[in-house]
Amino acid sequence: MHTGEQYHTFMLTSRRDQTVRDRFQKMALNLLDEGEGVLDFGAGTGIDAKTYAANGHPTFVYEPSAAMRDYLAEHCRDEIARNAIVTVALPLNCKVQAVTANFAVLNHFADHASLFEELSRVVHQGGFVLASMLSPYYLGDARYGWWRKNLLNLVRTGRYAIPSESRIHRFTPRVVARAAAPYFRLERLYPRGVGLATDLYMFLLFRRI
User: GO molecular function, one example (predicted)?
Assistant: First the structure.
């Protein structure tokens, strides 16, 4: 289990993760109009939240891990002091144009139907949810026995879980899109095709209907 500081340092020094983060932040910021609010769902230590706030977006952060929250409070202390970043105990405690969930936050959920129903009460009509999730097709994981053992589950159901302490789940985009309906529709998937096998993360953009 990482402490908040260990996680923060790792994420800022990992070149691969920084590339993913930069791409995710750019996509989120390009989708937002000036001054629109964001909920950073599973905000970690506040790295993304700090960027959103710096670009003029009122930012709410929801983070269930106490270790992450503690370090977030330190990392974003100036933004919190001037209410550019606001910590919420529950997602429903805010109303925003966008929800972002970076670095596999949604992979910790076994089922997304109730989550998207809840987020539908958070996101304005026409707003969006942007999530980066672990690709179930990523060939870099083929060296692991759990990946090979779950190929049949992936074909049959479009989902599987990895036996571990955190019980990470992998989903095909269509499974997540089905769970998001009828409140959200899948508007964009990146990458597509062979990219789903070569990239660890896939980005899913859901539009509030």
Answer: methyltransferase activity
> Would you say 209 and 143 are in contact if contact means Cβ atoms under 8 Å apart?
no
3-state secondary structure of 137: coil
For 72-97, what is each residue's pLDDT tens digit? Answer: 999 999 999 999 999 999 999 999 99
Name the phi and psi angles at 84, rounded to 5. Answer: -75, -30
Start-to-end C-alpha separation, the chain: 38
pLDDT digits (tens, 9 = 90+) for 132-156: 999 999 999 999 999 999 999 999 9
Does residue 150 lie within any of the structural domains?
Answer: no
Give the C-alpha distances (Å, rounded to integers) separating 145 from 10, 150, 151, 175.
26, 9, 10, 23
Q: How far apart are CA 44 and CA 21, in angstroms?
A: 13
